[in-house]
C-alpha cells in the first residue's frame, strides 16, 4: 500500500498595525514574515488610523492586489511564491511597510524589490526586511 503525501495545513499569520512598536513609530508587527503558499496573512488594526495595502511594484504579477480600509482587518491569502510588499497608506512616508516572503524567492526577485523606490524611512525599513529573505 502506497502512502499519499499529506499537505501541510494552512496557517493564519497575524500582523498588527501599531502606532508604536519595537522599531519605533508607525509599524507593522511583525514587519517581516515567512509564509507558505496557502497561508493567510491577517492585518489587525491594534491602534486607529491604519490600513494595509499592496505596494504594486513589490507584488507577484499574477496575484490580484489587496487594499484594506482604514481601521478594518484585511485577510490576504498568499498562494503564489514571491515577495508581497505592504504599506499603510496614511503612514507610508513615515516608514510603515511590511514584507511577506512566500515560499522560496530567487535572488533576482530580491534584487528587483531592492530597486523599487520607496520614501525615506520606508526604504530603510524595507531594505532591512529584504536582507532577511532566504
From TrEMBL:
Q: Where does Cu cation bind?
A: 50, 88, 91, 96
> What is a GO molecular function of this protein?
copper ion binding
> Which stretches make up the Blue (type 1) copper domain?
16-102
Indicate where this protein is primarily found.
Answer: periplasm
Q: How is the cofactor bound?
A: Binds 1 copper ion per subunit.
Pfam annotation, one family: Copper-bind
> Which top-level group of life is the source organism from?
Bacteria
Q: Does the keyword Electron transport apply?
A: yes
Q: Which UniProt keywords apply?
A: Copper, Electron transport, Metal-binding, Periplasm, Transport
InterPro entries registered for this protein in UniProt: Amicyanin/Pseudoazurin, BlueCu_1, BlueCu_1_BS, Copper_blue_Plastocyanin, Cupredoxin, Pseudoazurin
Cofactor entry? Cu cation
The record's section on SUPFAM superfamilies has: Cupredoxins (SSF49503)
One GO CC term, this protein: periplasmic space
What does the UniProt entry say about where the protein is found?
Periplasm
Q: Which NCBIfam families match?
A: pseudoazurin
Q: What is this protein called?
A: Pseudoazurin
